[in-house]
Specification:
The chain is mostly beta strands. Helices cover 0% and strands 46% of the residues. It contains no helices and six strands. Strands 1, 2, 3, 4, 5 and 6 form a six-stranded antiparallel β-sheet that branches. The chain starts with a strand and ends in a 20-residue tail after the last strand. The model has no long low-confidence stretch (mean pLDDT 93).
Length: 71
């Protein structure tokens, strides 16, 4: 389960944004059950991945992570 604010619904699909090697990486996901503030997601993620808590389209794939809010 991830915070609902971490799920990015864009014109290109549904994504989570994770931080890998100091850069942002858009990961395609499918959503499952929602429990208010959290959403079940399925995709190429592992339990130890660091994800952006509040995702936005201005956070481009491959850009430096900088001072983004992480989960």
């Amino acid at each position: 389960l991830v915070p609902a604010s971490a799920v990015l619904n864009s014109t290109e699909g549904v994504f989570l944004i994770k931080v890998a090697n100091g850069k942002l990486q858009w990961v395609p996901v499918q959503t499952g059950r929602s429990t208010g503030d959290t959403v079940e997601v399925f995709g190429n993620l592992s339990e130890n991945d660091v994800i952006v808590k509040t995702a936005g389209e201005e956070m481009r794939d491959g850009s430096p992570a900088g001072n983004v809010k992480l989960n």
